[in-house]
Amino acid sequence: MPSRARPDISPRALELPSELPELALTTLEHDQTISEATLIGAALGDLDARGVSLQGVALTNVDLSGSSLESLYVSQATLKACSLANVQARGAVLTRVSIGASRLTGVLFAEAKLSDVTVRESRVDLASFGFARLTRVTFEDCLLAQTDFLEAQLDGVRFHDCDLTGADFRGARLTGCELRRCSLDELEGVTSLRGAAFEWPAIVELAGAWAGALGIGVLDAE
């Protein structure tokens, strides 16, 4: 089967100044805005702060684990070696964000909007993107085991070299998405993957799951 040229779905590049003043931060408040700053090694875990806005920031080794950050807004930002483990961020908006070597285990991005986001070499397992909308988002070399995309809308989302074991796509709507060199064992909601493109070996690997989901029986060779 010949391959067809696919449109570029790479996330748009973020624009961040090369030098930003370092900000010392020990807590977050409701509706707080932080802009054009660098945060290094800040311990901001287990906080409750709704409506926090991070714009034009660079976060390195920042710990936000366990925090409740409903309606979080992040724009033009980089996160390196940060922890968002078990962060509750329902209704978050992330646009032009780069996340690398970070831990997002158990993060809740339900009903969130992510656009032009890149996540590399990070743990995003046991996470939830239920009812979220992801546009031009790339996951590269990430652990996404048992992460759910229930009823999510994925437009131009790329999964490259990711472990999607046990991931759940039930009810998801995919447009122009691609999966390359991914582990797809025990995938849930395989019939919702219409609109995604796979490499041929992955299509063969999933053939049994698709047949089972569609009620197609298998005959023994005569």
| Shape by Cα distribution | elongated
Radius of gyration: 19 Å
> What is the rounded distance between the termini?
28 Å
Structural class: mainly beta
Instruction: Estimate percent helicity.
Output: under 10%
Binned strand content: 25-35%
- Mind describing the biggest β-sheet? 11 strands, parallel
Can you write the helix and strand succession as a string? Answer: EEEEEEEEEEEH
How is this structure best described in words?
The mean pLDDT is 91. The protein is mainly beta. Strands 1, 2, 3, 4, 5, 6, 7, 8, 9, 10 and 11 form an 11-stranded parallel β-sheet that branches. It starts with 32 loop residues before the first strand and ends in a 9-residue tail after the last helix. The chain has 1 helix and 11 strands.
What's this model, at a glance?
The protein is mostly beta strands. It has one helix at residues 200-213; strands at residues 33-40, 53-60, 73-80, 93-100, 113-120, 133-140, 153-155, 158-160, 173-175, 177-180, 196-198. The radius of gyration is 19 Å and the shape is elongated.
Give the SSE map.
Layout: E1 33-40, E2 53-60, E3 73-80, E4 93-100, E5 113-120, E6 133-140, E7 153-155, E8 158-160, E9 173-175, E10 177-180, E11 196-198, H1 200-213
Parallel strand pairs: 1-2, 2-3, 3-4, 4-5, 5-6, 6-7, 6-8, 7-9, 8-10, 10-11
Search tags:
222 residues, mainly beta, 11-stranded parallel beta sheet, 1 helix, 11 strands, 6% helix, elongated
